[in-house]
Design goal:
This protein has about 40 residues and is mainly alpha-helical. Helix content is about 65%, strand content about 0%. It contains 1 helix and no strands. The protein is rod-shaped. Belongs to the cytochrome P450 family. This is Cytochrome P450. Keywords: Heme, Iron, Metal-binding, Monooxygenase, Oxidoreductase.
């Protein structure tokens, strides 16, 4: 997802990147827990 550069850069780009990292963290932790429950 492009955020632009210079004067026309997106003011919320850092927030969007942080939200994506949080989402990836939650997805990976919940899927790993689900995997262990299936093979228990």
């Amino acid at each position: 997802m492009p955020f632009g550069n210079g004067v026309h850069s997106c003011p919320g780009s850092e927030l969007a990147k942080l939200e994506m990292l949080i989402l990836l963290h939650h997805l990976t932790t919940s899927f790993s827990n689900y995997f262990y429950l299936l093979h228990a």
